[in-house]
Automatic annotation (TrEMBL):
PROSITE patterns: ABC_TRANSPORTER_1, ABC_TRANSPORTER_2. Keywords: ATP-binding, Nucleotide-binding, Transport. It comes from Allocoprobacillus halotolerans. This is ABC transporter ATP-binding protein. It comes from the Bacteria.
Length: 276
């Protein structure tokens, strides 16, 4: 996991008077699921657009898979899934993908392979309009990965999905990642980020305010408290060895003891509150 697939230095982008991104540095390693987290309007989609050559940056350097984001060579090697991933409702599942094999100029034998990967082979001849929401989302996924990209940009892939469909999508992402695909993922969902991401960065008002492994961040922002539950009371004490020893010696029946760690969501809320 040493090779950087994305290297961004001092990236900035402004729309009229709105600063969407300012001086952002990012390094994403091969094989990672990297979570780019932030509230609405933080600049997440703008970043994906800049990294994938859909927008031009004002300043800063971007290298994606060793290429600049406008290189056609790079575009063959990436997959992008965003909320405007419309499907052709009146066409069959198979024909939707056939179109994309033509766009990418790849053999149509890929279609059955990718449909098997997202578990849609049985419905390949069905019209898209007859599919459930979860199946449509899996088809969008199939379309995103049909050319076997080594790097995926997923812009809120589980937004507006019911919990079981969202979980299906997360499982597909994990499966692809286990096979070596690097994933750059944006989400509002902190539990999702905690479950899926090897590393995350928090973006707020166009600035990266913190980054690291979810576990390390939770430890860093932990309030170092221990919760103790006995047959008589339920209370917290500071994480302090002599104090803990003293408490344990005094009590009759211990029911539960555990350290209180903040969730990724609490870390994020603390950080964004500090910033604003
Ligand atoms: N084409 C545009 N023209 C003008 N302003 C824009 C444009 N695109 C984005 N912005 C502004 O840039 C800022 C960042 O927007 P962006 O869409 O990147 O945020 P986001 O983090 O992806 O938000 P969300 O989670 O709601 O999708 C916002 O203030 C937005 O209004």
């Amino acid at each position: 996991m040493n090779e950087n697939v994305i290297e961004v230095k001092k990236l900035s982008k402004q729309f009229a008077t709105t600063i969407a991104l300012e001086n952002c540095d990012l390094m994403i390693k091969k094989g990672e699921i990297f979570g780019f987290l932030g509230p609405s309007g933080a600049g997440k989609t703008t970043t994906i657009k800049l990294l994938t050559g859909q927008l031009k940056n004002d300043s800063g350097d971007i290298l994606v898979l060793g290429e600049n984001p406008f290189s056609s060579k790079m575009k063959q090697k990436i997959g992008i899934m965003s909320d405007n991933s419309g499907l052709y409702e009146k066409m069959s599942v198979y024909d939707n993908l056939l179109l994309f094999t033509k766009i990418y100029d790849i053999d149509k034998s890929c279609i059955e392979k990718v449909l098997a990967e997202v578990d849609l082979l049985d419905v390949k001849n069905q019209q898209v309009s007859q599919l459930s929401k979860g199946m449509k989302q899996r088809l969008i996924f199939a379309r995103t990965i049909i050319h076997s990209p080594s790097l995926l940009f997923l812009d809120e892939p589980t937004a507006n999905l019911d919990p079981s469909t969202a979980q299906e999508v997360r499982e597909i992402i994990k499966k692809l990642n286990a096979k070596g695909t690097t994933v750059f993922l944006t989400t509002h969902n902190m539990e999702e980020a905690d479950e899926m991401c090897h590393r995350v960065a928090f973006l707020n008002h166009g600035h990266i305010i913190e980054s690291g492994e979810p576990e390390a961040l939770k430890l860093k922002y932990s309030k170092q408290l221990i919760r103790i539950k006995t047959d008589k009371k339920d209370y917290t004490i500071p994480l302090d060895k002599p104090l803990l020893k003293q408490e344990l010696e005094q009590m009759n029946e211990l029911l539960m003891i555990h350290s209180i760690e903040p969730s990724l969501k609490e870390v994020f809320l603390t950080l964004t509150k500090e910033e604003s």
